[in-house]
Amino acid sequence: MPLIVTDYTWTQTDSTVFISVPLKGARAERVDFLSTEEYLKVHYPPYLFEAFLSEPVDEDRSTAKVGNGVAVITLPKCSNAFWEHLVITTYDKEKKKEVRERALLKYQERLCSESRSKAEKQQAEKKYALETMMKLEKEERDRIVKRKEDEREKTTAELAAWQLRQRETAETEAKLKLQDQRDRQNKLKTPTEKQEKGGSDGAKVKLDERGNSEAKGQKTPALLPAPRRAANIQVRFTPRVFQTALRESRVPEEEEWLQKQAEARRAGNADVEELKDLREEGRNPEWLKDKGDKCFASGDFLGAVNAYNLAIRLHSKIPALHSNRAACHLKLKNLHKAIEDASQALDLLTPAVPANAAARARASVRRGSAFCQLQLYAEGLQDYQAALKLDPHNAALQADTQTIRDILQVSATGTH
């Protein structure tokens, strides 16, 4: 239930009524005004001020200002006359209710009208903005079209000028060629004319079978054919795979190794029944090897073993697959499997040629490491020494080999 405000004040002139309503500490943004020609309401919860005006006012020119805790409402009168009372003196509730409802209905209609006007204004602004944008886009398109036309005309003019220059050049070359032919003909006619005239010096001239003129003690030069057109012939040489000196060459072994590598990649087991459902890359051993290498690098040793297993089932003659799987088994402590894979890799890495020296060294180290972890140091030392022969400048390999020697020496002497 709102609290009715009664401590308001009002003054008037012959044309305007001024009403001051105390806001009692209410903020300005919480004050709600409603004004029609016969009704005035100021609502700021929990307070309510309403006045049923005794005379009509101009609601379109009515204003309200809030400041210093007071709301001042200015109501222009419809007729210039002094009022005896601000509000009607009747206590008829039905009449007041009717006035209030009429004022609210009129206020709602005014709000709807303002909303429609605002929407129409926004629509008009959007339409204007759209038309302006379309106009700007049209101007931009016209500008681009004009630029294209200018470029086309410029290109056409340049092409016409180039064609004209080409024609002039061709005509000039044709004239020079014709003049050259005439000069040659004139040179050929000169000895014949001298023969017919007997020569100015009385020398006897005769023509041989080739048409060359011969004078006494003198020969006229024969007309030589034009020189042949020059051209370049590209010659390519296939480089040798193994860069070794001729006296140290091991060509038969190298060719055998290359042949074995080619056969290993051709001889696949892609017709195995359970492998037919694999995708195309899943049947490519190189792709599977790369996948296994990536799994190994990321620490997924089981995933790497699975990739190498499938690659070996497809192509079992590729040494790198067995050697890399041996490295995975070393990480997983499957030492016997590591020895088996490394041995298989070394068997496939034959004949021993410089091209597979690095692979043989890696396989030997992996097998030797597995032997040493099984405390079979003598076998491990043999593999490390074989790897050291292939890579004698590897400092880490030298240190590991010396460590194994020391362990064997301590075991032999029984000292610690």
UniProtKB/TrEMBL annotation:
InterPro entries: CS_dom, CS_DYX1C1, Dynein_assembly_factor_4, HSP20-like_chaperone, TPR-like_helical_dom_sf, TPR_rpt. PROSITE patterns: CS (PS51203), TPR (PS50005). Keywords: Cell projection, Coiled coil, Cytoplasm, Neurogenesis, Nucleus, Repeat, TPR repeat. It is found in: Cell projection, Neuron projection; Dynein axonemal particle; Nucleus. Pfam families: CS. One of its GO terms (biological process) is determination of left/right symmetry. Residues 119-165 form a coiled coil. The keyword Repeat applies. Residues 3-87 form the CS domain. Residues 170-222 are annotated as: Disordered. The keyword Iron-sulfur does not apply. PANTHER family: DYNEIN ASSEMBLY FACTOR 4, AXONEMAL, DYNEIN AXONEMAL ASSEMBLY FACTOR 4. This is Dynein axonemal assembly factor 4.
